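Holo prediction. Input below; ligand is 1,3-dihydroxyacetonephosphate.
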Amino acid sequence: MRKQIAAANWKMNLTLQQGETLLDTIIATPHSLTDNQQAVFAVPFPYLAMAQQKLAGKKNVFVAAQNCYSKKNGAYTGETSVEMLQSLGIRYVVLGHSERREYFNESNQLLAEKVNICLEYQIQPIFCCGEPLSIREANTQNAYVTKQLEESLYHLTAEQLQHIVIAYEPIWAIGTGKTASSAQAQEMHAFIRAQLAARYGAAVANNISILYGGSVKAANAVEIFGQTDVDGGLVGGASLIADEFVSIINALKK
Ligand code: 13P
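Structure of the complex:
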């Protein structure tokens, strides 16, 4: 059975002290995670060790990085390797977030390299895809997302693909307060799963968690996560507020 995941993406927010307080508050608030559910915290690089320490031993709770570099090591000033992340015990890396694609020119090809190196070091990519507003308005979002998956993921074997989590984040819904309707989310998630099934078979496709991202909050999480092919969320703004994020964790399907 595929995992249901509530993933917090702090982006470039919070001081160390604010991050510590947020994690402490979330840990102290009762929340229920079944064996099939996970909470993931994608924190800024300087806070990875702190988060890893605070969450150590917490069942089904993991830390993620928000990016990594595509090379193993070497003279790449300012970059962070997956070997470094592995040495901290990090489980996940968010790859291909639309903000990285847009502001840092990350291409599908570069992301394919990052996916490969993560898998080599047993770190699971949370691979983001999703279309801008102009594409949605032209109703060509399926082709757009297909190309993103094709160029960054479809070189993988079925065994490798099982280690990928996909996050569908329509760009027009990120930080805008404008959520895709639960029907729009379900439609795209079912489309992605059908594509995976056509390529890798239904058994593999049914095992892949596909998260929705874009203005998820406590008030809409139950409805969005309730959709058949939505396996949780990648949450920005609402993940910075402890009781919001705890409600979002509790909204995961059992
Ligand atoms: P918001 O939840 O703030 O819309 O951000 C979504 C997102 O980009 C998560 O990665």
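The chain has one domain: 4-250. That is the main takeaway for now.
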